[in-house]
Amino acid sequence: MPDVRIHIALAVLAIFAPSSAYPMTSMQQQASAMSAHAMIPKRQFAARPAKPASHRLMIQVNQNDPAVMNLALNNATNVLDYYRKKGEEADVEIVAFGPGLHMLRKDTTPVAERIHAMKDLAFPNHVRFAACGVTREGMEKKEGKPLELLPEASMVPSGVVRMMELQEKGWSYVRP
Fold first, then answer.
1. Are 29 and 4 spatial neighbours (Cβ–Cβ below 8 Å)?
2. Are 152 and 130 in contact (CB under 8 A)?
3. Residues 3, 6, 11, 12: what is their CA dihedral angle, to the nearest 10 degrees?
């Protein structure tokens, strides 16, 4: 094994020698890397506790049926309550499309009060309501007027595509 002093000397030369005038040999490069590594102080890192896993649930609503809408909201509430009690994070997204879009329509929803209350109920977890843009366009064309959604609803281009994308990201899926 070569003497450590040689490695140190080569490293010092490598630092001060102009690189274009004196190209380093592979042994000099190796010695320089070893000595530079030795000069870096070792830091100790304290182990951090792992962040609780985030649970993600998507609930499909595609029926204009108050019982189905209420069951979807019950499922969401139960999941959020369960993980809140365990001190774990949970995200729930209810995706409404087809006849289920009535759940998020301001003029036809039978569950507006429950949806308004869900934002506060979910804290510190998250609940979102996705409204299908394809369905909305179809309903507006058929009814001949623009549709107003609940303020809690956000538009997505397609409800089915939104569900596919969430599943591709590992979200669990429930259809009440």
1. no
2. no
3. 130
Q: Which two tokens stand for residue 11?
A: 């490293």
**pTM (2 decimals)?**
0.69
Query: 3-class DSSP state for residue 20?
Result: coil
pLDDT in tens, 11-52: 555 555 554 444 555 555 554 444 444 444 444 444 545 454
- The pair of structure tokens assigned to 82 is 């369960």
- Going 153 to 157 to 163 to 165, the CA torsion angle's sign is negative
Contact 153, 135 (CB under 8 A): no
The residue among 39, 93, 102 whose CA lies nearest residue 67 is 102
Q: How far apart are CA 47 and CA 37, in angstroms?
A: 24
* ∠ Cα 72 83 62 (to 5°): 15
CA distance 18 to 112: 75
